[in-house]
Write a structure and sequence with these properties.
Length: 268
């Protein structure tokens, strides 16, 4: 259902890896709502060819950029403004990866160079991206920057490992940069805390299938699907959410407010 909510807006979308990626759904919805976008992902992700297929389908450009590289980010921002014909109105940071989790290293035996790499990819990249945009004055007044996060930033989910700290850092960067970007350029910055979703990054967490069902039962509305996350992102990029900034917004079917659910204990 298209309502031209993003008509005339220009955006950059990070993190579309395949058809399951949250960023893929967001990109599709943004184009449906009339936005002009550029897709981007790490150069290694371009080897799979899926992002090029998505770009072709949406009739948009895809530019490789490692989100930990300032040089790549600056090139991406310059090229995006050139391709889209002006300053940017919205940016989606949909990037996450934990080296210690991927290599099945116990949290209590973490390798610190891997941990630093994890923080760089999953959280510091958000600051780097905003700082690069800020210094280039690349985002229009009332623009909207979003990062995707998870409730492990606030509560313990043991198998999420160092991604928990990555998400805490990501959410903190949203608040801090949101202050600076808001006061000087009227740009808003928020994070959306999404339900577990079956994607490549999600599936990398041990026991994800079982956990997905648990979260689904715990949430009065059930887990929020990727398509609904895309709808929420469209709203946050649109002028309907102009005064929301520096927030961590739960998009989780009610999970974050639950203590106990009879559905989980088989009491129903
Ligand atoms: N799937 C879930 O259950 C869930 C829940 C809440 C939040 N999230 C968050 O949503 C975001 C998107 O994840 P997803 O579930 O769609 O999985 P995904 O695997 O499809 O997306 C992760 C993306 O990060 C990209 N990436 C990794 N390293 C990069 C780098 N150096 N530079 C640029 N891009 C890089 C990958 O190529 C990939 O496209 C992540 O931040 C994730 O933590 C996911």
């Amino acid at each position: 259902m298209a309502n031209e909510l993003l008509k005339g807006k220009r955006g950059i979308i990070f993190g579309a890896l395949d058809d399951k990626s949250l960023a893929t759904k967001v990109a599709e919805r943004c184009v449906e709502e009339g936005a002009s976008i550029v897709l981007t992902n790490a150069p290694v992700a371009f080897r799979f060819g899926e992002i090029q297929k998505l770009a072709e389908k949406l009739n948009v450009e895809a530019i490789p950029a490692d989100a930990t590289s300032l040089e790549d980010l600056e090139n991406l921002i310059d090229k995006s403004m050139e391709i889209l014909g002006g300053k940017i109105d919205f940016v989606l940071h949909s990037i996450g990866m934990s080296i210690n989790v991927r290599k099945k290293r116990a949290y209590t035996n973490s390798k610190y160079d891997w941990m630093q790499k994890t923080f760089d990819i999953s959280a510091i990249s958000f600051h780097k991206l905003m700082q690069s945009c800020y210094q280039k004055d690349a985002i229009n007044d009332w623009g909207s920057v979003l990062g995707l996060t998870y409730i492990a930033a606030q509560r313990i989910f043991p198998d999420y490992g160092e991604m928990a700290e990555s998400k805490s850092l990501l959410e903190s960067f949203a608040r801090s940069f949101g202050y600076h970007y808001g006061t000087s350029k009227k740009v808003r910055v928020n994070t959306i805390s999404q339900s577990p979703t079956m994607t490549t990054a999600g599936g990398g967490v041990k026991g994800f299938d079982v956990f997905f069902d648990y979260a689904d039962k715990m949430s009065p509305l059930g887990n929020a699907p990727a398509e609904a996350c895309a709808d929420y992102c469209v709203f946050m990029f649109s002028d309907l959410s102009k005064y929301i900034t520096m927030q961590n917004l739960y998009h989780d079917g009610g999970f974050s407010k639950m203590g106990m659910s009879p559905a989980v204990l088989d009491l129903e």
